[in-house]
Structures are given as structure tokens and as C-alpha cells.
Design brief:
2 domains, 3-stranded parallel β-sheet, D-Maltodextrin-Binding Protein, domain 2, alpha/beta
């Protein structure tokens, strides 16, 4: 099976690759390879054509496809992966830009215009009454960082791990505060074709359980999770510093994303992969208020399913953590 990612591999995908390298998928009788595509728009197109088994997109494209007059994508999110937004706005520390309102007339760097955060960014700007701004594709990593450092863009709208990498490399930045309703929006999910959900339920359940186990294992031993990723991508291991310093910096990048897998509200059951219907309603409200949706009347129950959540969590989490703590 093929697993689709929307950006080039970085440490934010540490759990994803650990799921394969430590055999969690094989335990479920599954075998997979990763394929990297250009953003959410491309991911969901490939998913709709059943060319890949599952993918890790943002949710905006799925919601927008359910507007009246459009062909709805035959896809559902079946595993809530990133439970709060992974997207941020960052400026150089010395920048005169202090708030999102100061982005009026400015150039904002995004990975690409196909990325899933673009609709929600446009909605946010519209909600603030800002029409005069430009989104410029700057890729990620070094090209994006140079764009900010040289003034080619005034701000970056990248994901959490990217901005942290920029900081750890020595560039002083500030993150702009977003309205609470945007900060609390969940982000990436494991999405499946409706036919896959109906006809390959055991594989969907096994895949989600493997990812849940890998998430627990990574949380139990951050250093081993980083080292496992370096083994697969040795060119991404930092070149400077002692081994301890390299690990410390890299764990910060990994945790910038992975901690969001466990961001449950106070009193909310810790059920990995689960969704709240109200969260989807809130997402629709945000997109509608920002002018990205023509109507609030979106059938949100057709966008997700919790039917596999019990199966995802049907394992001994402490046993998995105990084994992971023994990894070097």
C-alpha cells in the first residue's frame, strides 16, 4: 500500500516513519511505502482516484468539496491526527509587524498554493478585514528561511516544526498570535476512500492502531524516535554540535508536532484518532465566516467517521511504552 504525504519528509513525520521502521505496521499484517506529493490538493486527488491507500492531508479541501454545486470528494477522515492547528505565522524578531492586522499589504510565504492551510489562511485574513496581501510560494526549509531573512517575504505561514528549525538554526523570530478559533482548529488526519472504509475495514483499523502504537512509543522515548528517523534520512541529522545537542534540538522539532497528537481537552477521553462533531461544525463556521464557504449547510457527518476508534485503541499502551523505553 502507498501512504501519501503532502510535504517532503522532515522530523514532524517521525512517528510516521517509526510506524514502519519499528514494525508496527507489520504487526498488523500490513506493508507500506511512502509517496510524497505537492500538498493537500494533490493528495486528495490521488486518494479520490484510489491510487494511494491513505494520506495525511489538511481538512480544508474535503470541506470545500461539499459545497453545493461541487463534486464531493468520496473521502472521509478516519483518524484525527493533529488535534490543534499546526500552522503558524512567523516574522523576524526585529520586524515592525506585531499582529496579524499588520500583514495588510504584506507578502506572506507559504509552502505552495496547493497546501491545505491556504483556504484557512485566506479565511483568517478575510475575517480580519484584510484584502490587500499576497501569498507567495517559498517551499520549506532553507528556501523559505532565506525568503524571510532576505525580505523577499514579510512573514512565513509554515507549520510548527519549520519555524522551530529556523529558530534552532539561530534566526530570532516571533510568532503572531492567532484568534482562538483558529488556534483550536484540528489539522491533519488519516483520510481513506469511502470504498476502502466499507470494504477494507480491518486494514483501516490495523493501520490506525499501528499509528497509535507508534505515537505512544515515540512519546515514551523521544531520542529513539529521532535516531530511528536519522537512520532513514541521515542527511537530515544536524551537522553542528555534540550528539547530545543534536538530539536535544531535534527532539524539540519532533515534539512541536507530535505533542499535538495528544492534545485532549480537560476531561475528554484519551482516545487516539477520535473526533468531536462540534469541532467539524466549528471548522465549517470559520471557513464560512472567512468567505471560503458559501454556506454553513455542510453535511459534516459525511466528512469523518469514529467507527474505528475503539479498534485503534485496542492495545496495551503501557506495554508499548515499556518496550519503547528500552530502545537505544
Amino acid at each position: 500500500m502507498l501512504i501519501g504525504l503532502g510535504t517532503q519528509p522532515t522530523l514532524i513525520y517521525g512517528v510516521h516513519y517509526l510506524m514502519v521502521s519499528r514494525g508496527f505496521l507489520k504487526e498488523e499484517g500490513l506493508d507500506a511505502d511512502f509517496v510524497v506529493l505537492d500538498g493537500t490538493a494533490t493528495l486528495v486527488t490521488q486518494m479520490a482516484q484510489k491510487r494511494i491507500f491513505t494520506a495525511w492531508p489538511n481538512l480544508d479541501a474535503l470541506i470545500l468539496s461539499r459545497q453545493p454545486g461541487r463534486d464531493p470528494l468520496p473521502l472521509r477522515c478516519a483518524y484525527n491526527g493533529v488535534r490543534t492547528t499546526a500552522w503558524e505565522f512567523a516574522v523576524l524578531e526585529a520586524s515592525p509587524i506585531k499582529t496579524l492586522a499588520d500583514l495588510k499589504g504584506k507578502r506572506i510565504g507559504v509552502i505552495s498554493l496547493a497546501m491545505g492551510n491556504v483556504p484557512i489562511t485566506r479565511a483568517l485574513m478575510t475575517g480580519l478585514g484584510i484584502k490587500d496581501y499576497e501569498l507567495l510560494p517559498v517551499s520549506q526549509g532553507a528556501p523559505a528561511f532565506r525568503a524571510l531573512q532576505t525580505g523577499a517575504v514579510d512573514a512565513l505561514n509554515l507549520f510548527d516544526g519549520q519555524h522551530l528549525q529556523l529558530e534552532l538554526a539561530g534566526t530570532r523570530i516571533r510568532r503572531l498570535e492567532q484568534p482562538e478559533k483558529y488556534e483550536n482548529q484540528f489539522s491533519n488526519c488519516w483520510v481513506f476512500h469511502e470504498d476502502t472504509i466499507c470494504g477494507q475495514g480491518e486494514q483501516v483499523a490495523g493501520f490506525g492502531r499501528a499509528f497509535a502504537k507508534a505515537s505512544i512509543a515515540c512519546q515514551a522515548n523521544w531520542n529513539a524516535c529521532v535516531r530511528s528517523y536519522w537512520q532513514q534520512f541521515p542527511n537530515q541529522k544536524p551537522a553542528e554540535g555534540t550528539e547530545e545537542q543534536k538530539l536535544e534540538r531535534s527532539v524539540k522539532v519532533l515534539r512541536a508536532r507530535t505533542d499535538k497528537f495528544f492534545n485532549f481537552r480537560p476531561g475528554e477521553p484519551r482516545r487516539l484518532g477520535s473526533y468531536s462533531e462540534q469541532d467539524w461544525v466549528n471548522f465549517v463556521e470559520v471557513l464560512h465566516a472567512g468567505g471560503q464557504l458559501k454556506t454553513r449547510d455542510i453535511p459534516v457527518r459525511e466528512l469523518y467517521t469514529n467507527q474505528f476508534v475503539e479498534a485503534y485503541n485496542r492495545f496495551d499502551a503501557e506495554a508499548v511504552a515499556r518496550i519503547a523505553r528500552g530502545w537505544q
